[in-house]
Amino acid sequence: MKKKGRNLLAAFRQTFLTLQNMTPQAEAEAELNAASARYSYNPILRWNPQVEDYFIKAYGSLHFAQISKALTRPSCYSCIRVNTLKSTSDAVIEKLQEIMRKSGSQNDVVGINLKENKASNDIDLDMVEKQSSLQNESITKCQIPGLEYVVFVKGSGPHEIDYGYLPDKPPKEVLVSRKCAEAVLRGAQVYVPGIMACSSYVEEGDLVAVSVAVEQPFPDGGWGLGITRGTVLQGLPTDPYHFERHGLYIGQGTTMLSRAGIFRASQGIAVDMNNRVFKLPSFYDVLEGEIFLQNLPSIIAAHALDPQKGERILDMCAAPGGKTTAIAILMKDEGEVIAADRSHNKVIDIQKLAAELGLTCITTYKLDALKAVRKRNGSSDMTTLCCNKDNNDVVNQRSDSGPLGNGVSSTTFVGSNADTTFKENVSNEKANERTYTSKADIRKNTRRMRNGPGRNQSLGGRVENSKGFLPNSFDRVLLDAPCSALGLRPRLFAGEETIESLRNHGKYQRRMFDQAVQLVRPGGVLVYSTCTINPGENEALVRYALDTYKFLSLAPQHPRIGGAGLVGRCEFPDGYVEEWLRPGEEELVQRFDPSSQLDTIGFFIAKFAVGPKDDI
Question: Where does S-adenosyl-L-methionine bind (predicted)?
């Protein structure tokens, strides 16, 4: 023990003498090397310790470390879905190339690798080689059979950026929130609300380094920033988050406002990001109606459902409408796609997207997925969608209809005289309303003018409520369930999830699945998907479904480019046992690994065939 202590003391003395004897040039090089490490992008994703142990059991230590690293970075490409009802892939590629030529965009990243599931023989090897041969181009068409309407646009990164650091003169700096930084890594600008702190004497037009403030653990066990917005950064170790933002610099930009203007304004762009760690082209307001930016696994989920013309399909948790519109386009806009979501404003967003893409087969409803099944002995309220396909008394709100000028909801009633009576009653009620405006109404209108459109003033008109749908009333159902979203990227923080919260996600999803399985007719299809890497929300849900509903069976998916599911189980310290897939089932699901060569978000898809079933 004494010998070990003497060795440590000797090593310390040697290090001290070495530092003392360093030449000024060596000292300057050491300082520049330290600055290079500091002004870089090398984040470490922090997890709840129990959650980290759980994922290590599921994936293995090395694999989970690779997943964690991949999650902190965006995909190296953007995936675009072409609206084949309005355009073609070739036409879109030509237009995008012209736009990128005019903007001077250059992409120098390696191409998209589609070799992940080569062993499954679901992707033709000739197709893979053909895709690889196209990778030297910045914009390419997907070569997977059936996905030729998908276009890939390359990005690049990570790039090393010279932030202009000089000894004793650190660069001017802007510190942004974690959520702002994640948006910037995806290609957004830095907006005023996202800035937490800033160097002093920053003026409009200054070049600034942009760093990130990631949540830190609090003594009470929670997480937070613990920083006052507007704090002055001096580039010294005494700065808030000085050590925590080491290796968390995401780029360089030009300020659009002075420091005073940044913290005085309530909105607008604060920093124009012109030198990014990851460069991904922006498609904001580009070719509206012709293209839709969507993650590749989400497109695959719509394909797994295999919608056919003339069918009746339900998207249970439809916002923001990407999969809904993908399904409608695959059906050639022929049939009926019901898009439901519990959020009023999100339903309106679906309506807007459907109108933008020119789709008329989509009907939208505000509906909680936990109350999706309407009991047969329920009330036949006029605002309820009756789900018998042969029943003509249906309340439809078409997604392409806007608000009516007289204030009547854009709701149509088919197969009865109720529409005339309903509109007359509404008109009479409007006519009989009092014309006196109270002070409370004046204050409310003033707030609306100041704060912008609210729930009942959202553009796009009213949203029709639904009390649910009758059992066995849909040919196919997509349940893209709300989840922990631990597969989304880039992600700079994951500490908020606990073992308990992950289990609660799973319980919530099982309740929604119980609703979904009742709505699919025998002989139909049910697709379940999530954007998380958590096996408790993926494989464990499949195990629950197959054990609970004997008439369900896993069905093959086409195209299949994702990896296999997890087989086995996990035992927790508290005695809880989580069952996953059994041997032979893993190849019937698709698990998208963010650390794989496919370079997608983390995603999971399971497809169930619905056999003959008893009343449930």
Answer: 317-323, 341, 368, 480
